[in-house]
Specification:
Blueprint: E1 3-8, H1 12-15, H2 26-40, E2 44-51, E3 64-65, E4 77-78, H3 80-84, E5 89-90, H4 96-109, E6 114-115, H5 132-142, E7 149-153, H6 181-189, E8 192-197, H7 203-213, E9 223-226, H8 237-249, E10 253-255
Parallel strand pairs: 1-2, 1-8, 2-7, 8-9, 9-10
Antiparallel strand pairs: 3-5, 4-6
Length: 264
């Protein structure tokens, strides 16, 4: 049987209690996931996505300023009207047109409004690294069973990339922001797909919604979300609940890691 495990953004900035965008409970999620890999890894192929950012990013405070030159605080929402009215503008005026066009496209595609996040998963920093327990399990797995398929996303500074398979707004000049049909095709051909990672309110939710949207009609039934190996960003619990409800309606299974295959 062809079984695949998709792990979404199991990185220190999300999973460590002192991470810059720490998700409550993520450290314990990742410990359970590590046990699941150690117990069941020989039965499956593994894919790991990694949020991968520059400091200068349209969703980081450094990109923006108000009329007094102040950067927005983390979790500030910037709307199309905010940019049109001058409440927020690009700190570098060269990027003002890009900034306005971006928030207009977000309004049109009805995904998320622009949320300013604490700088996180910066390339080359400890926060970008995979959570230690998971990394150890992956290295042990690679020592015996194969090669982890690492998928990076988020290094384009002018679009958000919650989903591991598609940016919120595609940049036609950057193929890394386009739909990742390679990964989707691999997962759809599998007999079973297990999914874990952070956060259930954002990157897991967007990744899986995009994958299921691009699966064939019956392929969602192959997918199981390991609900004890993911948690929502604090304050966004309702988004995770809505995501779980939508996945169940579309045929995706929700299980604990201890209740599938050999458990953990």
């Amino acid at each position: 049987m062809d079984i695949h495990l998709l792990i979404i953004d199991p990185q220190n900035d999300f999973c460590s209690p002192d991470g810059s965008l720490s998700v409550t409970g993520a450290d314990e999620d990742m410990k359970r996931l590590s046990s699941f890999i150690e117990t069941n890894g020989k039965k499956m192929d593994i894919h790991v996505t990694m949020d991968t950012h520059h400091l200068f990013d349209i969703a980081h405070p450094i990109f923006w300023m108000d009329g007094d030159g102040n950067e927005p605080k983390p979790f500030t929402i910037i709307t199309e009207d905010d940019v049109k009215d001058g409440k927020w503008r690009a700190k570098n005026p060269v990027f003002q047109k890009t900034a306005l066009e971006y928030v207009q496209k977000l309004t049109a595609n009805d995904r998320y409004p622009l949320c300013i996040w604490p700088p996180h998963c910066l390339i080359g920093t400890p926060g970008h690294n995979i959570f230690e327990d998971v990394m150890e399990a992956l290295l042990n797995w690679e020592g015996s069973f194969g090669t982890v398929d690492y998928v990076t996303k988020g290094s384009n500074m002018f679009t958000e990339h919650y989903s591991a398979v598609m940016a919120d707004v595609e940049d036609s000049a950057d193929p890394t922001t386009a739909l990742n049909t390679r990964l989707i095709d691999i997962l759809e051909k599998a007999d079973m797909v297990f999914v874990a990672g952070e956060a259930s309110s954002h990157c897991v939710a967007n990744t899986m919604t995009d994958i299921i949207d691009n699966f064939g009609e019956d392929s969602a039934k192959k997918v199981t979300l390991l609900t004890d190996c993911m948690s929502p960003v604090p304050g966004f619990e309702a988004l995770a609940d809505n995501f779980f409800d939508d996945m169940k309606k579309r045929g995706v299974k929700l299980e604990k890691s201890t209740d599938v295959l050999g458990g953990a």
